[in-house]
Amino acid sequence: MNMQCNKTNPTCEISSVKDFLRNICLDQEDKIVQNLELRNVKTVYDFLRHVSYLTVTSCTGMNNDENVDITSQSNVKFASAHESIFQNGVSVNGKLTQQLAQQLAQHNGDGGNPGEAQLCNGHTSAGREKGDRCNGVQRNGPQGGGKLANGVSGIGVSSNGVSSNGMDGSAGRDDPAAHSESTQACKEIAAMRDYYEQAREKRSGAEKKGEYVYFDMYIKSEVIKTLPTTDRDKERLINYIYKVMDVNDLLMMCIHFGLPHLWPKFEQSNIRNVELFKRIIIEGRKFERVKNEMGISFSEFVQIVNFTLSVKKKRIFCNNIFSQFDPCDCKNKKKHTKTICDKIHQFIEFDNWTFKNIIDNPFFQRLRNLSQLGVCQFVYPGATHTRFEHSLGVGYLSAKYFAHLCNRYNLSPYSGELNKMLRCVQIAGLCHDLGHGPFSHTFESFFMNYKKEETDHKWNHASMSLKIVEHVIENLIDQDDVLDSTDIKIIKKLIKGREHHKSVCGVDPVDSLIEASYDIICNNRNGLDADKFDYLQRDATIAPPNGTLPSLNCNRIISQSSVINGHITYNVKEIHPVWTVYMNRFSLFKQVYTHRKVRVMELMLCDGFRLADDIFKWSESLHDLDAFLDLTDSSIIYDIKKRANKHKYDEKVQKSLNLINSVIHDRNSNHAYKYISEINLSEPQLIKYLKDIANEERIARYAHGLSPDDIIIDWNYLNYGMGANDPLDSVYFYSSDNEDEAFIAHKEYRGTHPRYFEECNVRLYCKNKMVAHLAKDAHNKFLSDVFSESSPLYKKKIVK
């Protein structure tokens, strides 16, 4: 059996260190291999033991609101002892495994009682031979053959000496010894079942008290530091080890508990992480499978159960390798990155070049003065985050997304063509919103494009972003060798996204990956992109946690993405989290972006802007980048206030100021617009019919004294991102059984979905409070006519 790390899952099987390292694309691979061989590190198991260690951290729920980690002194001592063992190049011994097992047993409520079936002393109540050591050092049972359970020579042999398939090939069907062995297996299965029920009951009591443990895995960066290679190789090595440990935490448990011979059994069952094993095998009570197929002995089962029941979650730790060098080694070495604290993604890093040339650029710094949600901040007090925060998040998330897709192909995103693409993706993510005007989409929708027909040319922030990006990047090309002229086209295409999605079959994986990367920031096919992943999470924070607004964790979706034939695809098991993205978008549009107070404030604000535009010429400044640089939320309002103070008799400016003050300061003023009523439609034919007949002129005819200029009809189309279409019809998935074939999910995968994927919310507002009652009467009469029995709209509604 020769299993290696593959592109889709960095899982480790029995292979040499050389084969393992070959997947990481190291510059000085041969030197590293020679150095490890001198340390007697020859297999993957040896290597992982050499560069890692684990502890269990005791944690207690202090109250109902938060859990505080409490690392006991015994755990600290254990970590120190465990680390010193590995530093000396010695594998896990029985004493250490015994100590860890005792800790876990105590967490499960066993209290370390030697009378209970535990792994503490190598003896169990299941009738195992006394000579059969359960601490993983030696197997001296009836068929153990004296194999080392934690050494490579013991791989493929179960704890009781039975072969990998659970049957001894040398035993005949009628052999009494085989019958005795079968009887013994049945007894152990029954003992497993009894022990699990007891342990589960005791563990439930501990959970009520808020007692649990963390499974902490540590990458020993000080060991990586001593390898004779470059810093870049060391960083790559640490990143890859991290991924291996993250995906294969069950392997780490086996190695550090002295049970590596069980790993091939888990591999054959396609179980590589502790949570999956706990859910499918332990909680599913598949004890016959545990014994007969996996060949796990009772004592090993006890150890595993104590571990899986106690552990709440895993954590992986690794100190930054570059902070571990001696000061003399770093005398001329500058720090390469800067870290930003972000409320969504926690700590995000950008290199110094990106900070200096992109983030510190005046056009990017301008985003600090543009609110992400426009006038939503006057309705939701927490909606104060800016385009600056969002752009940093998209820059970080897009680079993370691309790096993950590279790792799925087992490709390094830090060298060659992919490294160039990684930088372009990150720059595009950072710069995708540089073209936004004041108050973000409010400026675009209600000021620049208000009441424009579908056939009219419309200004959009994306085109403005492309213009600014081209200006910024052109000034950087001649400064250093980081970017060249071809990068401008790549970055602009990344911001726009692909217009035509053609499958790329039978090409080099790198070409397929690069083609798919144009969907990372702006996915015109299905809307699943880094931009949406960030703003759906960020905008939902304006409400309390677990409040009325939906929350989203995009990390799971990204982690299950892959590239097939030039398309980003997702594991079909994640179809419901993918659907949640569209659901959350719909909810935010309905509850926040098109909130009736938000919309009326947007209308008032932009009416005020249009009144003053003849004086300040803001719409013309869009053609001048220097003038656009000064166009922000605060500057546009300051201009109006300053002008109004100097020209108190300028009617347009005073009216503009009154509208703006009604939004910012006094919503109850006589200048504020008043909400009248609304209707909601979801049937496409009804929406189209109403759109054709409803306008301000027609409604004003129903009330004497009401002018079309006194009212506003506000049309809000709410959908899941793809108009009236089901967005899942545009999403490619893959199955775990075949990760090389992309498909559109059938209906049986999808569950319950809405009948219509788009609805229309039509609201009526009145600009003049003095005639608001007339507007309401006119609206009611209009609806009575529209929905009368003689109306075509009524007939269509009844038919439906």
Helix content: 40-55%
Estimated share of beta-strand residues: 5-15%
The value of Rg in angstroms is: 33 Å
Number of strands: 13
| Biggest pleated-sheet summary | 4 strands, mixed
Strand order of the largest sheet: 2-1-3-4
Q: Pairing-aware structural class of the strands and helices?
A: alpha+beta
Overall shape: it is globular
Q: In DSSP terms, counting alpha (H) and pi (I) runs of 4 or more, how many helices?
A: 34
**Mean of residue pLDDT?**
76
Poorly predicted residue ranges: 1-13, 61-100, 107-173, 320-334
- Separation of the first and last Cα atoms: 63 Å
Number of domains: 3
Question: Can you walk me through this structure?
Answer:
By secondary structure, the protein is of the alpha+beta class. It has 34 helices and 13 strands. The strands form 4 sheets. Strands 2-1-3-4 form a 4-stranded mixed β-sheet. Helix 17 crosses helix 20.
Please describe the structure with a list of short key phrases separated by commas or semicolons.
single chain, 48% helix, disordered N terminus, alpha+beta, 800 residues, globular, four-stranded mixed beta sheet, 13 strands, 3 domains, HD superfamily phosphohydrolase protein, Hypothetical protein af1432
